[in-house]
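Ticket #4471: structure export looks truncated?
Reporter: QA, pipeline team
Priority: medium

Steps to reproduce: submit the single chain below to the structure queue and open the exported record.
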Amino acid sequence: MNLTAEMVVLSACETARGREIDGEGMVGLAWSFAAAGVPTIVASSWKVDSDNTADLMVDFYSAINRNKQISKAEALRRAALGKLAAGKTSHPFYWAGFTVFGDW
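Actual output as written to the record:
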């Protein structure tokens, strides 16, 4: 399959996880999108809180839309910093599980 998407965001639980396959490394949902030609994937490493993840993703997309010149990694960093500063969501559980893979 050859996808033409600029980015795929997998904001559900443990979307960056997979299983190890000899000669391939970790193969999972994020890997599948990369293999299909998607240059940027945002995925989670652990079980995430739905409400806070929704807020994090809104902040992530807002950062991208406000400034087209920043990288997706920088947009995610800014969204995470907002969670860190918010007090009740300052624990890394709420923001540190997400990673940008590929073309930042």
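Status: closed, not a bug. The export was complete when the record was re-opened. Leaving a note from the reviewer for reference: The two ends are 22 Å apart (CA to CA).
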